[in-house]
Amino acid sequence: MSVAIHRPDDQSADAPADALDRARTAAAADPDGYWRDHGRCVDWIVPYREVKDTSFDAADFRIRWFADGQLNVSANCLDRHLATRGDQVAIVWEGDEPGETLRVTYRDLHERVCRFANVLKAQGVAKGDRVTLYLPMIVEAAVAMLACARIGAVHSVVFGGFSPDSLAGRIRDCGSRIVITADEGCRGGKRIPLKANVDAALANCPDVASVLVVRRTGGDVAMTAGRDLWYDEAMAQAAPDCTPELMNAEDPLFILYTSGSTGSPKGVLHTTGGYLVWATKTFRDVFDYRDGEVFWCTADVGWVTGHSYVVYGPLASGATTVMFDGVPNYPDHGRFWETIDRLGVNIFYTAPTAIRALMREGDDWVKRSSRASLRLLGSVGEPINPEAWRWYHDVAGDGRCPIVDTWWQTETGGIMIAPSPHATDAKPGSATKPLPGVQPQLVDAEGQVLEGATEGNLVIADSWPGQMRTVWGDHERFVQTYFTTYPGKYFTGDGARRDADGDYWITGRVDDVINVSGHRMGTAEVESALVAHAKVSEAAVVGMPHDVKGQGIYAYVTLNADTAPSDELRDELRRWVRKEIGPIAVPDALQFAPGLPKTRSGKIMRRILRKIAEGDTSSLGDTSTLADPSVVDALVRDRVG
Ligand code: 6R9
């Protein structure tokens, strides 16, 4: 089960692991003391005296860290490095085409951020205002995030793959009156009409008064007079300095929408002090970042991984971070490895879905590169199956780079469970141990805490600094979603196994969230998109195993009585979901179902639908409680796959 990792250059392999164990013990014994010390991994303008002030109990619920301290995130990511590393590269941008590369130093980034902060101010953006970003993976995305942080505005980054409707919903929910976008994005040689999508979204967002447009491709786009401005023209007129706003530790830093098991996506709110401490400390601890190294996290800034490990963690640590605006298979399947050689990447952090997709294309694509610069590999977003782990380790990492399989969530702000980067043995598929300050527990359905080697629902028993603070505009939903299933504990929505060594193996979501290529999708969201179509009367969506994506989306659709099923209609419904939500929500399988299996009280029995989607129709369990057990036979007969 465990794999020895050969690390010829490492003479001190045991000591750091011991240190990590000691830190874990210290943080558990005295959280206040531990974080009093480690909160100093970032620069405070006004040092904190208070440290931990948290309770998950309903009567006394609060999550506050370092609450009387003051700081500025952009000053931490920029100003504090100017004296020591102003001329060091902060961001290496790699475009969609190989070698389309740009290097931005800390000094240059600082000036750009100051200018853009002034642009935002000139547009009337003030502390506490929300700013929506709908951008490709370009340097301007990091500039805009940091500029918001500089003036105390709250950014909400919306992934460029979301549809105009999804974008509009997110703009309205947080009430932003300004959108930052680009003319077009480029991905895998194709253009993405970002500005046109914004125009379509804004038809339903009457409060948006200004749109700043970055010229990425130079493509022809419509500009609305009085509302739309070119980014470069605004930047040229802006002053190159801007004093960072003094922010309280608990002031909001950003909102990021994520899917849950019910309802529309939630605006996860992270605050300034605790989030920055968590992103920074986990970046340093998990990746063991060493001065001068090049760190490449392939995530898009539209996801939390891009926030914490493309932008905030690396920049607060004075690292050189790669921003990649392309895809793993363009122009060919060697793109990652060729880019690693060309940019001299030392630490590479990607998702299992990409690893599986590349593994399928064979080892030759990898072996054309040397990957000599690589020292450490990371995985994030979904469980990594042992086969993909071994390929990542043996082929991509030439058997000499440890893998850190990092479990965390949008809600947790940063990595929570991960192996030590110094581990000399590894368990393919296990995220292993909690980081210092993280207190995972496994509980059964009744909330009983399970001890020893066991399997159960993963909860976190106490607060950590990087924890989300609320759902934007709906604190009740925050408490309800995360703290009522198992009162007094944060429920992750994941299941996990713990082995005899105390190592954790995340088994996946136990709620109605599907993890498609490492992207979270709520079954309820896809269902409501489907039933919004005029010909659909009912829909139920479940996850199904998928070789590359991890999970795929399986939709059961009941049509209106007067509508006949057809392949054309199936395609039409797929296009409909793409338009309503975006390409990541398009069902991989869509089955027309004359009826859905329901209990007599009208509840859809998803357990049965999951089994059918998995192709496991021999063990459907007890169907006698169904209102009409015969619907199951029809579903099994018409299964698509
Ligand atoms: C960072 C991120 C969170 C969900 C999470 C879990 C899954 C993430 C994982 C993992 C197994 C890992 N997940 N990392 N499962 N092993 N190393 O992905 O955030 O988009 O919010 O997704 O992803 O199911 O609950 P987010």
From TrEMBL:
Residues the entry annotates as binding CoA: 187-190, 305, 329, 517, 578
Domain Acetyl-coenzyme A synthetase N-terminal: start-end pairs: 24-77
Coiled coil: none
Nucleus among keywords: no
Residues of the AMP-binding enzyme C-terminal domain: 525-603
InterPro entries per UniProt: Ac_CoA_lig, ACAS_N, AMP-bd_C, AMP-bd_C_sf, AMP-binding_CS, AMP-dep_synth/lig_dom, ANL_N_sf
Description of post-translational modifications: Acetylated. Deacetylation by the SIR2-homolog deacetylase activates the enzyme.
Single GO MF annotation: ligase activity
Stretch list, region Disordered: 1-23
Annotated binding of ATP, by residue: 381-383, 405-410, 494, 509, 520
Job description of the protein: Catalyzes the conversion of acetate into acetyl-CoA (AcCoA), an essential intermediate at the junction of anabolic and catabolic pathways. AcsA undergoes a two-step reaction. In the first half reaction, AcsA combines acetate with ATP to form acetyl-adenylate (AcAMP) intermediate. In the second half reaction, it can then transfer the acetyl group from AcAMP to the sulfhydryl group of CoA, forming the product AcCoA.
Name assigned to this protein: Acetyl-coenzyme A synthetase
Organism of derivation: Sphingomonas cynarae
Classification lineage: Bacteria, Pseudomonadati, Pseudomonadota, Alphaproteobacteria, Sphingomonadales
